[in-house]
Design goal:
Layout lengths: L2 H6 L22 E5 L9 H18 L3 E4 L13 H10 L5 E8 L5 H14 L4 E6 L6 H7 L10 H13 L23 E5 L2 H10 L3 E3 L8 H11 L11 E9 L3 H19 L9 H6 L4 H12 L2 E3 L1 H15 L3 E5 L5 H15 L9
Parallel strand pairs: 1-2, 1-9, 2-3, 3-4, 4-5, 5-6, 6-7, 7-8, 7-9
Helix pairs in contact: 2-13, 3-4, 4-6, 7-8, 9-11, 12-13
């Protein structure tokens, strides 16, 4: 049995609106949030998680469609190391907002473990959970080895891991398979839709071949956005999940009263990413630190390029920039992320974007 046949041999999902939904209001397309439970200088992880909880509640009121959290390890500026735990908490503090992983790094975990975690999440919050999967470690090589002890060394067998996870979720291993008698518990009538995440062509092509929705990390791999989306669409084969491609992209976005204020906030995340790329991750620096940092020419070029991939400005400018990006890429959905310093500034940025983009005041619909 091929990987595609294994993936698509399960029962047809009862409701695909979990993927192909739309928000009410004047927004030209669904708008969602990717959150990293940002830990800035001067804040604790507990404060960051409380801010994420508040943001999820507000996102539901503002009309955002999804709220995803990402798995990262060994990064002092990110508190979302275990998406399943955080999603259970967020689900208890919201009522209608779709919640998901953006994503869980599949090679870091046994597929049965993920099937049990997200089966439990689906049982707790039925019809509201998305399972986004990535193949990168979400960390440095040493931490990846510590996470993957006893698991495959790397992501070379990602398609096989994905097929195994899907069979555990659907409870449909073929007869004779070593795991045919195993059951991922709990297992209910429905299960979370699987998304593939990526920043290159590998996951784009795999998502297309399997007929799955695809999320591309435009916010840190913008040069690959159009080629990956083209590959996804050209590779797409209709499945029990989707009859045509469905793609979203993650977009770094910061809104403030004016462009100068927004750019000042955005420099904090750019300096934070510079430190990550240099192997020295720290809590997200303050705007003051980012302004006074003595950038070398190479560092200044990195920061300029990073901020050039973001949508930054007044609320209207950000809304216009997001819509222009949506039209240029042809995606079905945008997922904004703002990894800036300061919980109030981040919260306000998302609120300004929601209003300017035309989301309704009220809960998002699946």
């Amino acid at each position: 049995m091929t990987t595609e046949e294994q993936q698509n041999s399960g029962p047809e999902p009862q409701d695909t609106t979990a993927i192909r939904g739309a928000v009410r209001g004047t927004a030209p397309a669904p708008l969602s949030i990717l959150d990293l439970a940002t830990v800035g200088v001067g804040y604790t992880p507990a404060e960051a998680l409380a801010a994420t909880t508040r943001l999820a509640r507000s996102a539901e009121e503002w009309g955002y469609h999804r709220f995803w959290v990402a798995e990262h390890h060994g990064m002092q500026g990110v508190a979302s190391s275990n998406p399943a735990v955080l999603l259970a908490h967020l689900g208890a503090h919201t009522t209608t907002l779709r919640l998901g992983s953006g994503g869980v790094m599949l090679p870091n975990h046994a597929p049965l473990t993920i099937a049990e975690q997200f089966g439990l999440l689906e049982a707790l919050h039925p019809g509201r959970i998305d399972l986004g999967l990535g193949r990168a470690p979400g960390t440095d090589p040493a931490t990846a080895r510590a996470l993957r002890r006893g698991l495959a060394e790397g992501a070379d067998d990602f398609p096989q891991q994905l097929a195994e996870l899907t069979h555990f979720l659907d409870g449909d291993f073929p007869a004779g398979h070593p795991y045919a008698r195993l059951t991922a518990v709990p297992q209910g009538d429905g299960r979370p839709p699987i998304w593939l995440l990526g920043s290159s062509g590998f996951s784009a092509q795999l998502a297309g071949r399997l007929g799955l929705p695809f999320a591309f990390a435009h916010h840190f791999s913008s040069a690959n956005t159009l080629p990956a989306l083209d590959l996804y669409r050209s590779s797409f084969r209709p499945s029990a999940v989707l009859d045509e491609p469905y793609a979203l992209i993650g977009v770094g976005a910061v809104a403030a009263d004016d462009e100068a204020a927004a750019r000042r906030l955005a420099r904090s995340v750019a300096l934070g990413m510079l430190r990550v790329r240099r192997g020295n991750p720290t809590p997200i620096p303050t705007p003051e630190e980012a302004e006074s940092y003595p950038y070398s020419p190479v560092e200044a070029d990195f920061v300029s390029e990073w901020m050039g991939n973001m949508v930054i400005g007044s609320p209207g400018e950000v809304a216009d920039g997001l819509e222009a990006l949506r039209k240029r890429t042809g995606v079905d959905e945008l997922m904004v992320t703002s990894h800036i310093h300061g919980h109030e500034a981040r919260h306000r940025s998302y609120g300004l974007i929601a209003e300017a983009y035309g989301l309704t005041t009220g809960a998002a619909t699946a």
